[in-house]
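FW: tagging you since you asked about this chain on Friday. Here's the raw sequence from the shared folder, copied in full. Didn't touch anything.
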Amino acid sequence: MQFDPLTAVSPIDGRYRIYGDMLSASVSEFALIQNRVRVECEYLVALSEASGVGIRKLTAGEKKTLRDIAENFSLEDARIVKKIEQEGYDGIPATNHDVKAVEYYLKKKLKDTTLADVSEWPHFALTSEDVNSIAHALMLRSALETTLLPALDIVQKGLGGWAKEYAGTAMLARTHGQPASPTTFGKEMRVFESRLSRQLEELGKRTILVKFGGATGNWSAHAAAAPDVDWIKFSKKFVESFNDKKQSIKLELNEYTTQIELHDTLAELFDNLRRVNIVLIDLSQDIWRYISDGWLTQKAKAGEVGSSAMPHKVNPIDFENAEGNLGVANALFTHYSHKLPISRLQRDLSDSTVERTFGVALGHSYIGHRSMARGMGKVSVNEEAMRSDLTAHPEVIAEAIQTVLRKEGVEVPYEKLKELTRGKEISMDDISKFIDNLDVSNDVKKRLKSFRPENYIGLAEEIAKK
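HL: got it, structure written out here
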């Protein structure tokens, strides 16, 4: 069947293709091949600049030629690489090996340039993981910095805006789903903003370790061919050449590897992303409940249908969409963290097939992040409804009264308030009569009567504004 978004197996390439497009340049099969080509071209440049390797110095023009091959790498070029891998191409037999196909592609390209005499130098002394390790790190960094982090920044700023605007908007709290001591909407949003901020700060300063030490990680072929070169120093400098000051996520050489980089830093990265998503799943469920209670009001979109049977429905679909997609992403992130750091002896291929699904997990995350941001932009705070539900529960100031009475030395104040309030519907008049019968000073009684559900918010406003 001809490919179309309607025939796609993955919803990222189908229903949510608009979001998949945002990630295609970073984590698609094309992006992987292009990054492999980039690594090989930059490696050839680096070899030419190192003394004692044996390759001739390249001119500035030749270095530009190499970099242009990677920079201008097209979809048609990627198709040629895939043909070399799967079918064979222009006299090159099928390799059935994706990285070797890149090497043969590059050698063929060089033979048509002034670099023909160095066409045997691509992939010199390397193994596939040396190229793949850097390529995947570049892909992940690109996806995070160009797509996921900007989307998360919108959510974080939205939460911060809510926290400030509604810092003093009193709201009934619920613990165990039951009415509890009041809070403010702004303070509760500050809690989520703070949690998200901590995870994003950690995410933004991550280091991804990569490998560049040849088969089994000992630089054996390198040392055999050019024993006078400090290959570890060379490799460290080469890996760091992919970093610049604008990028907060850095690549760093792991000197201690088997044939593969053992992916511990990738596991840390995915655990970090999973924690980000857990915060947002928690947020989506709370907002869903606030909408259900009428405390948040959704804007109805013209022409949109909420139910095929009930015309009145305006459903919280953005938050439900976020919750579902973030859950799918987290299932994959959890698998990555458990699977990737494990490899039989010096190498097996089980990590390679898992790495090919990174775009799926990042895609579902991105869909969730965008859904969350979109949903937040469509709701408004119904302060009147919040206040009405809050004042309907005067029993929530029992905590304040019993705590003040403890300070005043009144016997068993908790038990007295429990008798008055637990499991009962009471009014502010009932509380006022209770206070009148207490054996405390008039000043204390006045203070106790000043407590009302709408003003018993402690330091919530101050916390929200921080």
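FW: Residues 132-387 form a domain with the Fumarase C; Chain A, domain 2 fold (CATH 1.20.200.10).
HL: agreed, and The chain has 19 helices and six strands.
FW: great, closing this out.
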